[in-house]
Specification:
Shape: globular
Distance between the termini: 45 Å
Order of helices and strands: HHHHHEEEEEH
Number of helices: 6
Strand order of the largest sheet: 1-2-3-4-5
Helix content: 40-55%
Radius of gyration: 17 Å
Largest sheet: 5 strands, antiparallel
Structural class: alpha+beta
Amino acid sequence: MHESADHAQASRSDEPVPGPLDPVTDLVRLLRHTSDKGTIETAAARAGLRTGQLRTLRVAFAFHGEAGVRAVLHCAEVDPSTLEHAARQLASVRSHTRTPLHCRHNRITDLDAGIQLRLVDDTWYPFTRTPQNGWAPARGAAQLPTAAYSAARLATRSRGA
């Protein structure tokens, strides 16, 4: 019943009615406003996720919605020339090092800076390295890889401050 109310509200506004979500994305959407630790732990266990993974997905959803969750979960093949072109564009904002970028699947990784960009649906999603050597989503998805890279660099500086 709550779900149909969401759809009715969406149809009354200018927002599109959301389409069907995969089960993990739908779980993240349903838990987006939940702060109860027990509920989150139970939901993570039932979904086969670690609590930290669910936390990362919730952050991604908060920043970028369903596409942010897809950027965390899915590793897709992208035309290598797309990644190479983006890597060349990043040279203008990457003055700190000459270490090459790692381009694989839908990801460009700058290990020295602790930044990773992921391409999903023609949008670059920024990620920053965590202390555990994982990747955390950051705000600032953009059509241009340079803008997403700058957003990730800003997020890295903000976390370090």
